[in-house]
Design brief:
- The model has no long low-confidence stretch (mean pLDDT about 80).
- The chain contains 2 helices and no strands.
- The protein is about 35% helix and about 0% strand.
- By secondary structure, it is mainly alpha-helical.
- The radius of gyration is 32 Å and the shape is rod-shaped.
- It starts with 20 loop residues before the first helix and ends in a 19-residue tail after the last helix.
């Protein structure tokens, strides 16, 4: 026994005109294919993985303390 449910029944409400059964079947086929493509493309992208460089790189150093002057003599 399969765990997959059969395709649900499709209801089409024709508001104007008098389409043939073949035209309705073509409409259902086109819309079903478009829905299948859209739902297949609707997956969320995987989170970007950190590279080896990012994992091993040290944190950024602190900005220079400009008030000390360039010689750094008064540290």
């Amino acid at each position: 026994m399969s765990d997959v449910d059969p395709a649900p029944d499709v209801a089409v409400d024709v508001r104007r005109g008098n389409p043939t059964e073949e035209e309705l079947a073509a409409l259902v086929a086109v819309v079903s294919e478009a829905f299948a493509e859209e739902s297949a493309a609707a997956t969320a992208p995987d989170a970007p993985r950190r590279s080896s460089w990012q994992l091993t790189a040290r944190g950024l150093r602190q900005p220079l303390a400009r008030e000390r002057g360039w010689s750094g003599a008064d540290r």
